[in-house]
Amino acid sequence: MAQARSKSGFIIAAAFIGPGTVSTASMAGASYGFHLVWALLFSVIATIVLQDMAVRLGFATKVGMSEAIASSIRHPLARGLLALLVISAIGIGNAAYEAGNLTGAAIGLNSLYAMGTGSWSVVLGLLAIALLWHGRYHLIESVLVSLVGVMALVFVVTLAVSNPDWAAMASQIMHPVASPDSLTTILALIGTTIVPYNLFLHASLIARSESQTPQPATAYRRQSTLAVGVGGLITLFIMATAMQAFYGQSEALHAGNLAKQLAPLLGSYAELFFAVGIFAAGLTSTITAPLAAAYAVCGALNKPADLTSGWFKAIWLSIIVIGVLVTLSGIKPLMAILFAQAANGLLLPVIALLLLYMMNTHRQLGRLKNNWPTNIVGIAVVVLIAWLSWQKFS
Fold first, then answer.
1. Transmembrane region positions (predicted)?
2. What is the count of structural domains for the chain?
């Protein structure tokens, strides 16, 4: 348990650095250069604040976020509405996210051996089911997180050797863009960083680790901040390499040429390395998304939230099956991934409001309750994302 506990923050970072992050950040850099860095910076700050709330909630209550919310609501009708909200928000959101994870991982495998992304998604779905069913996914998850870390290192080195135009990057950062055409990409950047299901997953991981081997809350909080910050830097480097390869060029970014951005460093091996990396990122997220959904929904329904529970297995199995079916529907790969991130951006205000409510009202929080600066930041996150969503769909 100590090993799993020590990785909780980085498991969360690995969960959001999936194929959605690689594809969305690549599309942002290719289409808008550094004009959307403001959206990434906002997302990282918001993620640090919200994940810190989830850490404090799990630490203080020793239960997951759904259980903590349910225990604070007495009225049967209100509890029923809460359960419906969690099931709808996390269930639908994670199904969309799972489709993006499977699609991204399938793109990588299909580059190595072409048999179609749909076929590969079925194979990946079965692999994820096998790992979760037996509950022995921690070692494989650690290996995949390491592979994603190696891929991140390659993006950093690639950017360094590709003679980036630092002046152009700085100029674009100082001229942010928020046009109607860019709103989907902005929401996707936000949705791929501030992942709603990670709030439920993080609280559950902290609660279960803390109940076994206690340690100071500050240790969990520091690790969470560090891990999210590193994840944000990785996303920034991905944006930068895509900008160098595609921004202002005649060639448009698509699923078949995502690896081109690594060519300055890896040459003919760029496609192979990118395929392995995005497969690793996709499979890691393919495991964590249904796992988080199971924790959230079981908590809302007051069902056992452990890997041996029938309810728990039924929920994560449903998420994987739905994700596979979406990938088999014929939706274009990058569009499926981008939609998953945008869907997360739309769901986030609802989840963030629930978390804010708990962080100000739960009796067990004590000194870990939200202070007014944290509340202001949390409310600002909700308002901005809701406004962006309104602008996009109004």
1. 34-55, 76-97, 112-132, 139-162, 182-205, 226-247, 272-298, 310-331, 337-360, 372-390
2. 1
Quick one: pLDDT at residue 4? 44
Q: Which residues 6+ apart lie within 8 Å of 387 measured at CB?
A: none
Residue 158 in any domain: the answer is no
The one-letter amino acid code at 385 reads I
- The per-residue pLDDT for range 99-142, each reduced to its tens digit, is 878 887 887 788 778 888 888 999 999 988 988 887 665 666 67
pLDDT in the model for residue 334 = 58
Q: Residue 7 sits in which domain range?
A: 2-149+164-232+275-393
Indicate whether 60 belongs to any domain.
yes
Low-confidence ranges of the chain (pLDDT < 50): 1-5
Among 64, 54, 44, 95, residue whose Cα is nearest residue 381: 44
| Composition of the chain by helix, strand, coil, percent to 5 | 85, 0, 15
Q: Kindly report the CATH number assigned to the domain that includes residue 292.
A: 1.20.1740.10
238 part of a folded domain:
no
